[in-house]
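Can anyone check this?
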Amino acid sequence: MNKYYIAGFFDGEGYITNFPKIHKIIHITNTNLEILDEMSKYLKKIGIENYIRIHNKYDKNLKHNACYRLFITGYKNIKLFGDEINFHSRKQKDKYKILMDLYQKNSWRRNSPVK
């Protein structure tokens, strides 16, 4: 696992979400828990706190696999992800810039606790 793999994976499977006045999140969704677990370990190794949660459970009627999400929250972790992992996609870079601008405007939120 390396930062280039994660950056490429994030461009395809990742999201930057901004819920005004609640929290800002970077997350990656996939059905392969093993890959997300390896990413999580690598991110933690470089100082980016994160956690994985099940998003959708397996449903034999819908014939789809369980889906998992790796979450990165908190100013320090999101900024470190942007600085260390970076983004290949212009769309993701633009969303990241908007997110960082929002943190700058609401500087008190930068010190909010990390989940």
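Reply from J.R.: I decoded it. The chain has a mean pLDDT of 83.
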